[in-house]
Structure formats: structure tokens, C-alpha cells
């Protein structure tokens, strides 16, 4: 077992059941990240996969429920790739997302991380696919691993999803697997402002009739803001529960996984969108 795993296990084993110290774990995550840099480990190196998967498997559920920005801290520490695997991969998600994407669509995958979703989408016929992430290390590794000669046109770029360099209405689909969850751990003012920037950028780069497809655990504050924001624009929302992702072999994060399809429509002046009284939990 690598020294990073030993380091993390020392902390996890010291925690009493039900007494998870999230603040201490944040410190651990940062130390793990620093140690990985000292060893010059990429996110997909075997040692880093060992420690990230071990941590995500043991405390992923507590972290996701913690709020107060902790998931963002962990993302910065390089653990988001392992947590994102708990949202399912293409084989579990395809029966849902394929309904809302065409192989001819121009697709942007925001916050791609080290998930193989992009490669699987490309191999499934979606050739017009771009991927962005904030991490220089992740992008370098993903280009090396997946943007090979057998996948011409598949690209990974280091870019902020809140401020992309793409043209207006360039994409038919913006795909978001866990990125909204990572960026919105709570509903504090600065968090809401960050998400408003993300949504405005999605609006800018999506064509009319385009779809913003969000794969999410849909915590209450997320679904409330998501529905409220896009409803005010006159966009149409569909929410589907993805049980295949929940029951994938080896899943340790036992929490419902949802796919939200937000379709962009042109807002008609002087027309107020109809408000429906509904409870999204009925689809549980």
C-alpha cells in the first residue's frame, strides 16, 4: 500500500463512529495534495487513485452532506475525480442522457475531471465533443490518456466554466457531471453569485433549443435554485432519477442520482412563465 494510503488511513481509523471531523479532513486532503505534488503524481497515477478512492469510499457521503464549502476544498485537493465516479459512468447514464443528445450535436463537458465519460461518449458516436476543467494537471493527463490518434477531434482544455472563451450559441449541449454540486455546497451569497455566473455562461454558449444536462445528487438548495433560475428565463426543466448509476457495482455513495435536462427557449417579452406547484421528491 502506498504511503499516501497509510497517511489517510491513520486519520480515518482515528475517528470515532458518528464523530467525523470534517475540518481535520480538509487539512488531511490538503496535505495529501501537497504530498502528491512532492511525488509528482498525476490524478490518475495508481498511488493517487488508491488514496482518493479509499477516502471517497469511506467518507464521501458525509462530505457531500456537510455543506459550508467543504466539497469545493476537497475538489481543490484533487479528490473530485473519485467522488464524481459515484455519479456513474457512461454505461449507467447512457439510457437517460442519450435521449437528449444527438451524435451531430456540438457538446461541451464542463468540469470533466478525470472521468472516462468523455472517451466513452466519443466512442459511442459523439465526435463533436469538447471538455474543460480548471486543473492543468488533469487536462494534461486527460489529453495524454484519451485525446489519442484513435480519437481525432477529442480535446481537453484548461478553462474556467464560469468564463469560457467560446463563441455565443456555439453548443447544442452543455454537460455537467457533478460540477454544479461541487460549485454549490451551500446557498450563501458568494456561492449563489458564483452559480449565477455559471448559469449565465451556459445561457451564452448554448444555442436556442440547446440542453444543459446536469448529473447531480440534487441537494435541496441546488434543486430550488436551479428550478427558480431557469424557470424565470422561460426554460423547460425535466428531472429523471438514474437508478442504474445508483446501483452500479462497487458504489459506496448510497444517495439518489438525478439527471436534470434544462432546455433553452427564447423568452417572450411580457410573458410570465407559468408556475407549477410540485414536489420534486415525488420521483424518489
From TrEMBL:
Methyltransferase domain span: 104-216
Signal sequence region: 1-19
Single GO biological process annotation from the record: methylation
GO molecular function, one term: methyltransferase activity
Source superkingdom: Eukaryota
Entry keywords, A to Z: Methyltransferase, Multifunctional enzyme, Signal, Transferase
PANTHER family listed in its UniProt record: EEF1A LYSINE AND N-TERMINAL METHYLTRANSFERASE, SAM-DEPENDENT METHYLTRANSFERASE SUPERFAMILY PROTEIN
Entry similarity comment: Belongs to the methyltransferase superfamily.
Name of this chain's protein: Methyltransferase-like protein 13
Gene for this chain: LOC103521580
Amino acid at each position: 500500500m502506498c504511503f499516501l494510503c497509510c497517511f489517510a488511513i491513520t486519520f480515518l481509523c482515528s475517528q470515532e463512529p458518528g464523530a467525523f471531523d470534517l475540518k481535520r479532513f480538509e487539512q488531511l486532503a490538503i496535505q495529501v495534495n501537497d504530498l502528491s505534488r512532492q511525488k509528482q503524481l498525476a490524478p490518475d497515477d495508481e498511488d493517487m487513485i488508491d488514496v482518493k478512492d479509499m477516502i471517497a469510499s469511506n467518507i464521501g457521503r458525509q462530505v457531500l452532506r456537510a455543506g459550508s464549502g467543504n466539497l469545493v476544498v476537497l475538489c481543490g485537493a484533487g479528490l473530485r475525480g473519485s467522488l464524481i465516479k459515484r455519479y456513474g459512468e457512461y454505461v449507467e447514464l447512457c439510457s437517460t442522457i442519450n435521449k437528449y443528445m444527438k451524435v451531430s450535436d456540438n457538446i461541451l463537458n464542463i468540469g470533466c475531471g478525470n472521468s472516462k465519460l468523455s472517451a466513452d461518449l466519443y466512442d459511442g458516436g459523439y465526435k463533436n465533443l469538447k471538455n474543460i476543467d480548471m486543473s492543468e494537471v488533469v487536462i494534461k493527463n486527460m489529453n495524454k490518456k484519451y485525446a489519442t490518434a484513435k480519437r481525432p477531434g477529442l480535446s481537453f482544455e484548461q478553462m474556467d466554466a464560469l468564463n469560457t472563451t467560446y463563441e455565443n450559441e456555439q453548443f447544442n449541449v452543455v454537460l455537467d457531471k457533478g460540477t454544479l454540486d461541487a460549485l454549490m455546497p451551500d446557498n450563501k451569497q458568494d456561492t449563489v453569485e458564483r452559480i449565477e455566473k455559471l448559469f449565465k455562461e451556459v445561457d451564452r454558449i448554448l444555442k436556442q433549443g440547446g440542453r444543459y444536462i446536469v448529473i447531480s445528487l440534487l441537494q435541496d438548495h441546488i434543486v430550488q435554485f436551479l428550478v427558480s433560475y431557469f424557470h424565470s428565463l422561460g426554460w423547460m426543466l425535466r428531472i429523471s432519477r438514474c437508478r442504474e448509476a445508483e446501483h452500479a457495482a462497487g458504489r459506496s455513495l448510497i444517495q439518489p442520482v438525478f439527471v436534470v435536462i434544462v432546455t433553452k427557449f427564447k423568452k417572450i417579452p411580457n410573458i410570465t412563465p407559468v408556475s407549477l406547484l410540485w414536489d420534486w421528491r415525488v420521483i424518489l
